[in-house]
């Protein structure tokens, strides 16, 4: 019979994980609002500022539906922050890419973030590696030394 994992330590760890996630999104939403963007629009713009990509890939990275991403990109395009262009590797595929204004806005957003820009700033490389490996185990993903 499995033992219940509702001991105080487990509850505290779960609560802390939730607080980290909530703080990240709250700060991102505040920074986005300063640019009259939603948090989701800001996250898409930030992702595209790293590299242009098709809607499906944006959806995979943000773990949401491609139809939602299409709507977000449409609104960013209307604001002149994003444009659609053919993928040079496959002209049938459209890439979403930031305009010059979009790239500047993404940089301003990043610059205005503190915790959300670098939520692991207080952790050493060793701590980050340990946290990554623990989170992977929590999610049932193989560790780096599997095999």
From TrEMBL:
Q: Which GO terms describe its biological process?
A: response to stress
Q: What are the residue boundaries of the HTH marR-type domain, all occurrences included? A: 10-140
* Molecular function GO terms recorded: DNA binding; DNA-binding transcription factor activity
Q: Which Gene3D superfamilies match?
A: Winged helix-like DNA-binding domain superfamily/Winged helix DNA-binding domain (1.10.10.10)
Task: Keywords in alphabetical order, please.
Answer: DNA-binding, Transcription, Transcription regulation
UniProt KW Transcription keyword: yes
Query: Which SUPFAM superfamilies has this protein been placed in?
Result: Winged helix' DNA-binding domain
Q: Work out whether the entry's keyword set contains Cell inner membrane.
A: no
This one is known as DNA-binding transcriptional regulator, MarR family
Q: Which organism is it from?
A: Streptomyces atratus
> Organism classification, top ranks?
Bacteria, Bacillati, Actinomycetota, Actinomycetes, Kitasatosporales
């Amino acid at each position: 019979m499995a033992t219940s994992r509702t001991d105080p330590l487990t509850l505290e760890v779960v609560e802390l994980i939730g607080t980290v996630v909530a703080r990240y999104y709250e700060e991102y939403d505040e920074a986005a609002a300063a640019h009259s963007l939603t948090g989701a629009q800001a996250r898409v713009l930030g992702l595209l500022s790293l590299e242009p990509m098709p809607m499906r890939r944006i959806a995979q990275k943000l773990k949401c539906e491609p139809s939602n991403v299409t709507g977000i990109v449409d609104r960013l395009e209307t604001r002149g922050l994003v444009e659609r262009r053919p993928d040079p590797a496959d002209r049938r595929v459209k890439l979403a890419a930031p305009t010059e204004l979009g790239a500047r806005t993404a940089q301003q957003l990043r610059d205005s973030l503190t915790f959300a820009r670098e939520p692991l700033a207080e952790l050493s490389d060793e701590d980050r590696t340990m946290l990554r490996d623990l989170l992977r185990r929590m999610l049932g993903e193989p560790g780096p030394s599997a095999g």
